[in-house]
Amino acid sequence: MNGRKAKAKRRALRERNAQLLATIRAAVPSLLRTTESGHEVWQRGPATIVLPIVPADAPSDLQTALTVNRMAALTTDCPRCTNDVRVTEAGGYLVRHEAACPGDPDRLVELGERLGVDVQRRED
Length: 124
Ligand SMILES: [Zn+2]
Description:
Blueprint: H1 3-26, E1 30-34, E2 39-44, E3 47-52, H2 60-75, E4 84-87, E5 93-96, H3 105-115
Antiparallel strand pairs: 1-2, 2-3, 4-5
Helix pairs in contact: 2-3
Bound molecules: zinc ion (ZN).
Zinc ion (ZN) is lined by residues 72, 78, 80-81, 83, 97-98, 101, 103.
């Protein structure tokens, strides 16, 4: 493949992703079901989103962090950091938080370990 073709392909992919993200953002999220592992499965336009459920008995720091994570995943905009949104090859999307954001999945797991609460990463 020559450089021009590769460039055109990248541009087409960028346009497809921007369009897909606009479609996702324009759609109203709806809850499909909850799983036994304590997650909610939502549909927003063409995207399926898996969110952790906030346990009512969780320590307040953990409740806050989980809520930040959920809001960012559901709206594509994190209330606590300037996040990045990547459209996946499968047509879904991933919210990438800043490293120190409490909504970042790695920070959530660390916080859970510190508090002695099991925070499950979703299996994907
Ligand atoms: Zn964030």
